[in-house]
Specification:
four-stranded antiparallel sheet, six-stranded antiparallel sheet
């Protein structure tokens, strides 16, 4: 958070708000600067990608409602964040009121360009002002419609003496209209509004990627209450509750297996591609997938304290841990916008006043500087990239503690991995088939029999065997499979065309000298 930290003895409270339309660093900075003038506010930090505003307040001096009203005076709707999930998609940026005004502005500009192309007196249109082309009126309308996306903010920033890009664009559009450059005014309004939509879209996508992490854990769970199965929200679960997890379902909580055995896909949390066998007494994590068995899990942590919840908080807080680049851009933007405004004034009025140069020419050049020097994209680019990178890594099981650590990866030249198998494709494949000596079976025969039995299993290794049989032409569809039985943590067995077969870990077979040499060779290869 910005601003000096208060004394440790102060009884302070942090309030987190969700702020609509706070989509760039300039927006966050303007809100922060305003809140720092409010009595009782000790620190404020705006996080545009998360649309969160963290405020450290003295509750004896100011309350959350006063903070919300202060933010509202700047044109932003704020409410206390209650941890609810966002349901809006990244496409919402293209359908809101700002988007509609942008499309109308663009359409009007297109019509005006067509009228100007048709000539000075297109169709039968005439105007009382004979020196004003009908297209000019439409251009001005397009400028006003598109400019309304940032006129109110520009005026509020001027009144708050906190100049931002909305102020720059407001002055540029109105100035262009004053000097008769109606096409330029319309183009500025439309193109800048379109740029704002693109920026909002990129921020929404980054925000949506964070929200997608919530989808790793189910919202509800089946709980055993007096021997009956009752569905409850995960937030209502408490340590000691017993949860039922069926095959194919995501485990809703961090806990310990109380009953049952299964293979659990933990890749979403640990990044480990191979399923992990779980039995009574083993720990399981929220967001992981129960592959095949029926589990009863005793809850050990509340929903807010699970490994997955901590991972989500880590990603959300990544935007708050500024990288070197972000800190530089933030400091730069604080002096950049006022400097641009001052430079534009000097360019517009300096040469005419000092050297008697044409006023209109230099005024337009001053407006041009305002347009090309808008810093918003520069300010928001780094936070969006950081949050997107940290979130993408988290979805693939890689936890990065913050933007500073992500940025440090740019300087990494050597990476050491601790064991064979750390780098994988994320799913198992059959790489070799070795028939036992004296069995009289070829590779295709072994694969066909194994696939026939494994086709009854949902284990990821079983699916790999079936896929390999399909790819190598080992058709097993006509084989008769009976008495199929899964042996949790070890393998499967059953009758295939009347012959009893076992498929599973080497430990399932005891000592098999015929394949020991092959097993040792394969293990040495990883």
């Amino acid at each position: 958070m910005s601003k000096t930290a208060p004394p440790e003895s102060a009884d302070l409270v942090e309030v987190v708000f969700r702020v609509e339309r706070m989509d760039c660093g300039n927006c966050a900075r303007m809100i922060q600067d305003r809140l720092h003038t409010v009595a009782g506010v000790h620190a404020a930090q705006g996080l545009p990608v998360n649309r969160r505003l963290r405020v450290l307040i003295d509750p004896t001096v100011v309350d959350a409602e006063a903070i919300r009203e202060e933010v509202g005076r700047l044109g932003y709707a704020a409410r206390v964040d209650e941890g609810r999930r966002d349901s809006a998609s990244a496409m919402a940026a293209w359908t809101g009121p700002e988007a509609i005004r942008t499309w109308i502005s663009g359409a009007l500009m297109g019509v005006a360009l067509l009228l100007r192309w048709l000539g000075p007196e297109p169709l039968l249109l005439t105007l009382p002002l004979h020196d004003l082309h009908p297209a000019d009126l439409i251009f001005m309308t397009a400028a006003l419609v598109g400019g309304w996306n940032f006129f109110p903010k520009g005026i509020r920033s001027a009144l708050a003496r906190s100049l931002d890009m909305n102020f720059l664009m407001t002055v540029a559009i109105l100035g262009a209209v004053v000097v008769g450059e109606t096409l330029e005014a319309a183009a500025i309004a439309f193109l800048f509004s379109l740029a704002e939509l693109l920026e909002g879209f990129s921020v929404d996508r980054a925000r949506r990627s964070i929200e997608s992490l919530f989808e790793l854990a189910p919202e509800t769970a089946v709980v055993l209450v007096d021997g009956q199965e009752v569905r409850r929200y995960v937030e209502e679960l408490r340590p000691g509750d017993r949860v039922v997890v069926r095959p194919g379902e995501r485990i809703p909580v961090d806990g310990r297996v109380d009953e049952g055995a299964s293979a659990v896909d933990q890749s979403a949390v640990t990044g480990e591609s191979m399923p992990v066998e779980k039995g009574v007494g083993d720990d399981v994590f929220a967001g992981t997938v129960n592959a095949q068995g029926h589990l009863r899990v005793r809850v050990e942590k509340a929903a807010a304290d699970t490994t997955l919840a901590r991972m989500i908080r880590l990603v959300e807080e990544a935007e708050g841990s500024r990288t070197r680049s972000e800190r530089f851009v933030e400091r730069f933007a604080r002096v950049y916008t006022p400097a641009v405004a001052l430079g534009a004034v000097l360019i517009a009025f300096g040469p005419p006043l000092v050297a008697g140069a044409p006023f209109t020419l230099w005024f337009v050049r001053g407006l041009t500087l305002l347009v090309i020097a808008c810093p918003c994209a520069l300010v928001i680019s780094t936070p969006v990239a950081v949050v997107s990178g940290v979130t993408a890594a988290a979805r693939n099981g890689v936890l990065i503690k913050g933007g500073a650590h992500l940025e440090a990866m740019a300087d990494v030249r050597v990476v050491a991995f601790d064991k064979t198998g750390t780098l994988t494709r994320g799913h198992p494949e059959v790489v070799d088939v070795v028939p036992g000596s004296g069995s009289g079976l070829g590779e295709v025969d072994v694969l066909r029999q194994a696939a026939a039995l494994e086709s009854r299993s949902e284990h990821p290794l079983a699916r790999a065997v079936v896929q390999a049989a399909r790819e190598r032409g080992a058709d097993h569809s006509a084989m008769d499979v009976r008495d199929f039985e899964s042996i949790p943590g070890r393998g499967v067995r059953g009758l295939v065309d009347g012959e009893r077969l076992l498929v599973g870990r080497p430990e399932l077979f005891g000592e098999l000298a015929a394949v020991e040499d092959a097993l040792h060779r394969l293990r040495r290869q990883g």
